[in-house]
Every structure is written in C-alpha cells, then in structure tokens.
Amino acid sequence: MTDVLDRPHVWLPGSPGHPPLLFLHGTGGDEHDLLPLREHLDPRAPALSVRGTVLENGVPRFFRRLAEGVFDEDDLHHQVDALAEFLVAAEQRYGVPAGSWTAVGFSNGANIASALLFTHPERLDGAILLAAMIPFRDGPPPSDLSGRRVLISNGRHDPMATAVHTSTLLDQFRSAGAETTAAPHDGGHTISPARLPRMAAWLASHTTDRKRNDDGHHQ
C-alpha cells in the first residue's frame, strides 16, 4: 500500500503559538518555490510545502486543465480530495492540530487552495491566495466558511486572474461566511513584494485574535 506521505513535500518545524502555513506552488513550480515567503510572512511558523502530482507538458500542477483558464473540474475534485487526505496524514505525522493550516497558494496553487476551502473547509483555517482564479465555473458547492479568513492579492493587470475573477471569488467566499480581505497590486500574474508586509500583518492579527480567544476559553 502506498503511503500518502510519499508525495513530495518539505516540512519545516516552527515555534509554539505560530499557526502552520501550507505552501502550494504555481504551474511548473515545486515544493521549494514558495518557501522563501515564510521569512516574510512568519519566520517562526511551521511550514508544509507540497508538490502537485499532475504533470502538464512535464511540469507539475495540482490538477489538470482542458485549456488555459479552463479547468478539468472532475480532476480538480479528485485532486483536492487527495490533498485533504494528505493533510490529515501530515497533521498526524508532524503533530499539527487538525485543520489549523493557513494555505498560501500562487496561481494553480491558489486555485486548489480555494477548492480545498470550499469542499473540505474543516482542513483549513484560512488562506492567502495570490493570482487566484475561480476554481468552479458554475460556482462552488454549498459550504460554511464561518470563522475562516481569506486574503486575495491579485494584480490589476493580470490577464488570467482578472478583475472579474477577483470580485467573483471574493463574493463566493463572503457568501459562504468567510471574512475576506482584498490586497490588490499594480502588477500582472505575479506575487507583489510590496504586499508581503500587509499579508504578514494580516497573519499576525489572526494569530493574536485566536490566542485571545483561546485564553478566554481556558479561563
């Protein structure tokens, strides 16, 4: 029987009180691509970075597409289920509280992070979505994202993750009950270094809020 944790990944332990980050790369990337973002977002956070298992013209992706911008949604559902299963195994292996991850995804990685939130909301605490499109053409399945936080940072001149994608995705998350934040930038289909301090502050505020809530529950 194949061990679900045989999937290529990198695990970096962190410090207590720092919620874990889940890094999900873009098309053609791998499990090392986004790890440098940890230093900008929260250097003391535990971090898990995972490689997509689908190959397109020899380069990794998290799910298939039928054409540029047209997703194979059957494969998306299959791959997001596999990623959810992987996260359960990773939590057990690395001692991570179930569902405490904040996903940090770029492009294809952002799209599977969105799909994971909509289809397996119990697996994530929130997400930072970079150059994110809409994962489900006809809208996501009904889900309750109350208590989840989502930050979307798309470029105003992104030819793929357009303004329509951005506003629609924000609306979908809001309709499901998530707390949403938009952090647009003036570039294209890229990660904006100028927005990293905003993302770090967003993460830190969530950590502080959750610690305050935990302390209140334990009194």
- CATH fold group: Rossmann fold
The stretches of 5 or more residues where confidence is low (pLDDT under 50) are none
Cross-sheet strand order for the largest sheet: 1-3-2-8-9-10-11
User: How many DSSP E strands?
Assistant: 11
* N- and C-termini, Cα separation: 46 Å
- Helical percentage: 25-40%
- The SSE order reads EEHEEEEEHEHEEHEH
Task: Tell me the name of the CATH class.
Answer: Alpha Beta
Beta fraction: 15-25%
CATH superfamily: Alpha/Beta hydrolase fold, catalytic domain
- Which geometry do the CA atoms define? globular
How would you sum up the major sheet? 7 strands, mixed
What is the CA-atom radius of gyration, in angstroms?
A: 16 Å
CATH architecture: 3-Layer(aba) Sandwich
Q: What value does the average pLDDT take?
A: 93
Please characterize this protein's 3D structure:
The structure is a single chain. This protein is an alpha/beta fold. The protein has one domain (4-218): Alpha/Beta hydrolase fold, catalytic domain (Rossmann fold, 3-Layer(aba) Sandwich). It contains 5 helices and 11 strands, in the order ββαβββββαβαββαβα. The chain has helices spanning 37-41, 73-94, 108-119, 163-175, 196-218; strands at 9-12, 21-24, 47-50, 54-56, 59-61, 65-67, 70-71, 101-106, 124-130, 149-153, 179-182. The longest helix is centred in the C-terminal third of the chain and has 23 residues, at 196-218. The chain is globular. The chain starts with 8 loop residues before the first strand and ends with a helix. The mean pLDDT is 93.
